[in-house]
Automatic annotation (TrEMBL):
Name of the protein in its database record: Flagellar protein FliT
Alphabetic keyword roster: Bacterial flagellum biogenesis, Chaperone, Cytoplasm
Species whose genome carries this gene: Paraliobacillus quinghaiensis
Compartments, as annotated in UniProt: Cytoplasm, Cytosol
InterPro entries, per database record: FliT
Amino acid sequence: MGRMEALYDITVELDRLLEQPMESKDREKLIEQTEALISKRELLLQEVKEPYTDEEREIGRKLIPLEQNIQQKVKLLFMNLKIEMRSVKKQKSSNQKYINPYKNASNFDGTFLDKKK
């Protein structure tokens, strides 16, 4: 198998992986698999150098839309993770306020400080 065919196969596999719906229980596994495929792909991209055959150019043309699609999916995945992290952080602070609502209350409420001697 040529260098471009291997690159194309890994790119298609990465695209299929990112097509799967991401559930919170499978997220970590999905991210690990994505990272592994991206690492393999990076190594193959370093091997791809000129001169290109006509077949390699054709595969390269097929890779361009796949690459754009993968970038959009990864960006969406990252945005969803950021949103979920914010909601978890907000929920954590809400739980803390529910457990101890007077934690941040001022100690000077209702007290009178006399400034005269």
